[in-house]
Write a structure and sequence with these properties.
Radius of gyration: 23 Å
Order of helices and strands: HHHEEEEEH
Number of strands: 5
């Protein structure tokens, strides 16, 4: 009798953990959808315009701000003047794609290249890896590890 109660307890615990894992996975899947680029490109432009120093500020100030922004995100970021000359390049220089307007230039697997055109005419060319910004696999792995550790 006592052994049967013990097994029922552990089966119930494992079942609850599996349900939590499945529920968490469904929630992350449901809320981790990419929005349309037009929505978030405008937000990025607004953010960049608020953070970057004015166009007439010294290039050293621009380089300091861009480096502080690009380094933790592990992205390559280049800032171009309205005439197309590169002002700052953090990481590998990102070539200025032809054409105007903010847009997603390319998506290659987990990599996404962007071009942001600011109101003052400057353009930001960004090339970055998105893998570390999508924690779905990490969350599921952590929940699976928790379930395995608790079941043992």
């Amino acid at each position: 009798m006592r052994r049967r109660l013990y097994l029922q307890f552990w089966l119930a615990l494992i079942l609850v953990l599996v349900l939590v894992m499945i529920g968490s996975g469904l929630l992350v899947w449901a809320f981790d959808r990419d929005r349309e680029p037009a929505e978030w490109l405008g937000e990025l432009e607004t953010f960049a315009e608020a953070v970057l120093p004015p166009a007439d500020a010294p290039v050293a100030d621009l380089e300091r701000v861009v480096a502080a922004f690009a380094a933790p995100l592990e992205i390559d970021l280049s800032v171009y003047a309205p005439d197309g000359t590169r002002l700052v390049a953090i990481g590998e220089p990102v070539a200025l794609p032809p054409g105007a307007g903010s847009r997603v230039v390319s998506e290659r697997g987990p990599h996404r290249s962007l071009l942001l055109e600011l109101a003052d005419g400057r353009r930001l060319a960004i090339d970055g890896d998105r893998d570390h910004r999508r924690p779905v696999a990490h969350l599921l792995a952590a929940l699976a590890l928790l379930a395995a550790a608790t079941a043992i």
